[in-house]
């Protein structure tokens, strides 16, 4: 009876320790399953033993083995083929025949449960135990199994005590009964302490220590138990620190990815396989005119409003799994007018090559399209200018002859004596001919001036730059336009510094521009005030010529620099067009500001001269 009781106590302790060890092994296996990155694991193929990825996984597993003091860690697939073997005794893809022994436990693993094997004795006569857990990918699918093997040293002690107990029982029944009684009394308390301690393992802060001040096997068992608990405490602390470090690194990488996405000037949209928008950067919000909060988690179909052609491009990539080529399409944006958008879309795949969504990259091409149209227009204008210049030159020669003949006719008509009729009345026919000849000469002169200005515009000569006193040019232009300092009821407010820096300009052409602007200002006013101001700012000369006229009508403001557009009676519409081209040739700009109180033309030219070589207008 006493022997039976002793045996029962041994069995109870053994089962309790075995059950607790099973929980720890399953916990370690589950920890490894959650630690190993599944995207890295699926990339491992036979022969990758020397790759950096495989070594990285081995290093991570080695840290866990050192932290938990397990004997071996291995990862395998459903066909029992090795994916990772920490000991390196088996190669990638090799079938692990020992796993067939635990086929029942592995069947539970593939069903999603963590299990442990029964105790078994190895070739070295030591006891071992294995724990298994499933390893899932990001979608929760089981892609591999994790196996953890550990030597059970304290079972050696129990086994040795059991053998001694059996030997003593066989040697003497009576003595065994007495010893069993004494041992049972001396073992119950330590075993209860160990059992109670094992129940606390795994709970929050569960690192119990037992106080067994004995020199026998139970004392050894207690000391081994305390050592194991201390090792578990150290390993848990190490694993927590590793987990915190990995999480911090993941957060840093995620933050970097978000920063990179925000800094991209092109719009980026990400969608999942359902077509729902999962990401949106600030550039996309700006191009679409929509906020991220109104886009995220919505179906892309119907969510992009005016940019609806982009929906088709994205869904093509989602449904076909292939890249949607770059497309350019116009959109009507009431606040910003017609715009051009260029976009493409590509499928997104995970490490295993499975499609998980699509991403679209798009940009606002409005400025590019406008520039292309402007370049095309300039090319057409250049060709038209060459043709027109040739025609104007051919017109000018016979026009000069016609003007000479008209002037000769005018002089001869003027020299004709007035005729008298039969009633001695003066015939006024000669006077009419004289007026008609004067009108003829005037119209021919106007036409000749138009052709001359057109030739200047069509074949602008090469600008000849030289260092020039800018104030002298301003003074010369004003003197030519208003020799007396004023014209009629128009006063001149001259606010130009006594000394202006010299700048490389073409004196004649720059004076032509200023003279044209001053004359236009005089013609815009019946009476009022002409203002001329000059200053230097940011290495540029800024010259303002203003009038107090009625201003430029809003309908005319976009056409003011177009050739042949004029609002003046008898004007050619080429003065401002020529002036604007001359200033551009100087590397500057000619702009205007207008209101009902008057107009100000602003000339800006660099004091260091144009950045490029002198502009040859004959090539335009």
For the structure shown, list the relevant keywords:
4 domains, six-stranded antiparallel sheet, 14 helices, Helix Hairpins, 620 residues, alpha+beta, Beta-Lactamase, five-stranded antiparallel sheet, 20 strands
Structure description:
The protein is of the alpha+beta class and 620 residues long. It folds into four domains: 230 residues, PAS domain (Beta-Lactamase), CATH 3.30.450.20; 101 residues, Beta-Lactamase (2-Layer Sandwich); 80 residues, Helix Hairpins (Orthogonal Bundle), CATH 1.10.287; 154 residues, 2-Layer Sandwich (Heat Shock Protein 90), CATH 3.30.565.10. Helix 1 packs parallel to helix 6. The longest helix has 50 residues.
């Amino acid at each position: 009876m006493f022997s039976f009781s002793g045996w029962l106590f041994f069995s109870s302790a053994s089962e309790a320790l075995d059950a607790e060890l099973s929980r720890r092994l399953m916990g370690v296996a589950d920890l490894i399953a959650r630690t190993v990155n599944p995207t890295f694991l699926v990339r491992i193929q036979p022969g990758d033993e020397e790759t950096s990825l495989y070594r990285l996984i081995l290093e991570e597993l080695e840290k866990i083995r050192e932290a938990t003091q397990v004997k071996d860690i291995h990862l395998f697939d459903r066909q029992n083929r090795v994916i990772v073997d920490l000991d390196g005794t088996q190669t990638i893809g090799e079938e692990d025949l020992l796993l067939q022994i635990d086929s029942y436990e592995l069947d539970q693993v593939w069903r999603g449960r963590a299990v442990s094997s029964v105790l078994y004795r190895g070739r070295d006569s030591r006891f071992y135990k294995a724990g298994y857990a499933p390893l899932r990918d990001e979608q929760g699918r089981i892609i591999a199994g994790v196996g953890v093997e550990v030597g059970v040293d304290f079972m050696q002690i129990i086994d040795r005590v059991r053998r001694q107990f059996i030997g003593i029982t066989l040697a003497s029944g009576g003595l065994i009964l007495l010893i069993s009684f004494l041992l049972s009394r001396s073992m119950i308390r330590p075993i209860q302490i160990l059992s109670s301690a094992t129940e606390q393992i795994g709970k929050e802060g569960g690192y119990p220590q037992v106080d067994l001040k004995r020199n026998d096997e139970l004392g050894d068992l207690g000391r081994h138990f305390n050592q194991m608990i201390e090792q578990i405490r150290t390993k848990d602390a190490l694993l927590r620190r590793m987990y915190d470090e990995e999480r911090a690194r993941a957060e840093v990488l995620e933050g970097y990815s978000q920063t990179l996405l925000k800094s991209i000037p092109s719009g980026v949209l990400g969608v999942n396989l359902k077509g729902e928008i999962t990401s949106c950067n600030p550039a996309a919000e700006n191009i679409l005119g929509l906020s991220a909060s109104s886009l995220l988690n919505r179906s892309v179909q119907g969510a992009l409003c005016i940019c609806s052609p982009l929906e088709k491009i994205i869904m093509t990539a989602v449904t076909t799994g292939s890249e949607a080529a770059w497309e350019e399409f116009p959109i009507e944006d009431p606040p910003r007018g017609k715009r051009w958008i260029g976009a493409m879309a590509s499928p997104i795949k995970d490490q295993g090559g499975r499609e998980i969504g699509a991403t679209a990259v798009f940009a606002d091409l409005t400025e590019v399209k406008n520039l292309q149209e402007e370049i095309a227009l300039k090319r057409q204008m250049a060709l038209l200018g060459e043709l027109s210049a040739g025609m104007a030159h051919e017109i000018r020669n016979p026009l000069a002859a016609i003007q000479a003949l008209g002037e000769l006719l005018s002089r001869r008509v003027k020299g004709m004596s007035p005729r008298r009729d039969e009633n001695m009345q003066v015939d006024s026919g000669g006077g009419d001919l004289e007026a008609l000849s004067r009108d003829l000469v005037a119209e021919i002169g106007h036409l000749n001036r138009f052709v001359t200005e057109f030739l200047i515009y069509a074949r602008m000569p090469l600008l000849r730059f030289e260092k020039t006193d800018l104030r002298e040019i301003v003074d010369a232009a004003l003197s030519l336009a208003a020799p007396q300092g004023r014209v009629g009821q128009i006063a001149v407010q001259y606010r130009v510094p006594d000394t202006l820096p010299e700048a490389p300009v073409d004196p004649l052409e720059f004076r032509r521009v200023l003279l044209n602007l001053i004359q236009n200002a005089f013609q815009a006013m019946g009476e009022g005030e002409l203002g001329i101001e000059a200053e230097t700012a940011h290495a540029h000369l800024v010259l303002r010529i203003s009038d107090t006229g009625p201003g430029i009508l809003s309908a005319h403001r976009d056409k003011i620099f177009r050739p042949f557009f004029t609002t003046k009676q008898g004007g050619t519409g080429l003065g401002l067009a020529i002036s604007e081209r001359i200033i551009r040739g100087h590397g500057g700009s000619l702009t205007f500001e207008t209101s009902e109180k008057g107009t100000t033309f602003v000339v800006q030219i660099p004091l260091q001269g144009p950045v490029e070589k002198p502009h040859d207008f004959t090539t335009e």
